[in-house]
Amino acid sequence: GGVGRTMQKLRAAKPKRHRASHGSGGCSVMLTVGAACILLCLAATSYLFAKRAVARAAEQEMLDALVARTHALEERQVVVDQAVKAFRTTTEQRLARAFKEPVARSSAALVPQIPTRSMARSQPPTTASRTALPRESSSIPAEDTQLFSSPLKCARNRTILVDRALALRLNVHVYPVANRCERAQISLKLEPGCPDNDVSSKRKLRQMLVVGVQRSGTHYTWEMMNRLGVHIHHEGLGPDGAASWLFAYKTGSYAINNPERLTNQRFCFVFHQVRHPMRVVSSIVKSSKKPWDTFWDWLVRIEPKVCGTIAQCRQTPLVVRAARQWLVWNQHIERFADIRFKVEEVSPRDVCRLAQFPERICGSDGRFHTTSSQVIQPIVEPQAPNDGHTASENLAVSWAQIEQLDTQLAAEMKEMTRRYGYYLDPAMHPQSLSTSNFRAGGKEKPR
């Protein structure tokens, strides 16, 4: 009986053990899958951490290389700076020994010059065919005999004085000054002490302004000044000044656009550059590609004395317009300019000296040039021909043409021509360079 009951209990318990065994098998599978997923996650995380560590190591390596390169460049820059400083010091010492700039700006301390043919040409002719020409008086007023003690920039001087001793020695005409403030009102000339025209005002100051009639050679003067190292611009504004026929009039608008308003500019020295009238008028006529250029609109609005209104000017022959512009433009410049010089005779170096730039620049061989070329370019000097005459010129206009069109205009032009120290015949005056053929970069075409 007891054995039977035991067997029954075992039979009754067997299905339960089977069910329990079946459930534990499912759990083990799930545990296995979960463990595999965890392992995969850990592996992926380890891979990401390893990849990030490799990237960080590469970044650190690149940063170290960049820092090392920066240090090397800094060390090289120090060496270069030391070499440049040593070269600059040596160059300045050599230039100081070579040029020996004078300390005193007086007539006794001026640098002696070798007489040139242009200076010899200043003497009146002795032959019968060349009568002496009348010249304007350039007497030295007592109050202007005191010269600068050193060639300082004009912004540091309360009074702007021309070196009259040098001007007279170069046969350069010095204009008398009647009313300084009046000429400051009609020009860009600096006149310390005049209303709104003082060195302490907000006006921008520059050393020199060269003005004249168009086609009078301002392009040549600009190129020569820049070859010397005087940084002026042609028909624009440079650090040291300008050379422009447009700037002869003080006006709010100009035929050529400028980056800065000229009404805010002042120039310490204003030089009147003149050229023989037949060369100027002929050059204007030759350069006019059509009967009416747009610059005449601006010119007539600025100075009606040339040919009246625009309608009247259009009816005026080009030769008369050009001739009258030469006369009227020069008459206006005479009212405010400091000096007057002939481009055919005065050396660019002397123009530089008259503007009171340092002698190490004015007397140099062009090593201080401000042009784009890396080659030292020559300074083209005026040269008088051996026989006293220049080569034949193909001029487009003659005195006879002007007299035929306007007798009074021709008479006034002849009077001014003689007063400026010219003969009526342009062949009597040297011209080593035709400005119409002038090319920057040392490719001049001498006549």
TrEMBL record:
The keyword ATP-binding appears for this protein: no
Official protein name in the record: Sulfotransferase domain-containing protein
Coiled-coil residue spans: none
Compositional bias segments (type: Basic residues): 11-21
Start and end residues of each stretch annotated as Disordered: 1-24, 110-144
Compositionally biased residues, Polar residues: 115-140
InterPro entries named in the record: P-loop_NTPase
Source organism per UniProt: Rhizochromulina marina
TM ranges: 29-50
Signal sequence region: none
Tree of life domain: Eukaryota
Keywords recorded for this protein, A-Z: Membrane, Transmembrane, Transmembrane helix
SUPFAM superfamilies: P-loop containing nucleoside triphosphate hydrolases
